[in-house]
Amino acid sequence: MSESFHFPMLSSERLILKQPTRADADAVFRIFSDPKVLRFYNVDLMGKREEAVALIESRRRRYELGYGLRWGIFLRISGEYIGSCGFEVWHKPWRFSEIGYELAQEHWRQGYMTEALRMMLAHGFDHMHLHRIEAQVEPLNEPSRKVLLKLGFREEGIARERGFWRQEFHDLTQFALLAPEFVR
Question: Pairing with 134, which of 5, 70, 143, 147 sits 20 to 30 Å away (CA)?
Answer without folding.
Answer: 5
